[in-house]
Structure of DNA 3'-5' helicase II:
Amino acid sequence: MAKDNRNRVSIKRVAVRFLSMHSAKGLEFPCVAIAGLGLLGRHGETVEECVRLTYVGVTRATHEALLTYSSESALVQRLIA
């Protein structure tokens, strides 16, 4: 959806929007949910890159952020510590 709209997201309607963390940069939402943190970094990204991307995603939230993970990974271990 974001690509079809040239990465512009309308905030005039109440709706649930699914975006990648890459395309969410610069946007803000009242609530952000990031699922599957244990899966980040499985395509060769470094832990530092995954931490930066997670930071971008979490800071899109103006009121609440929900993070979930289902497996232990270097990223999850670093975030828990």
About this structure: The radius of gyration is 13 Å. The mean pLDDT is 82. Residues 47-58 form the longest helix (12 residues).
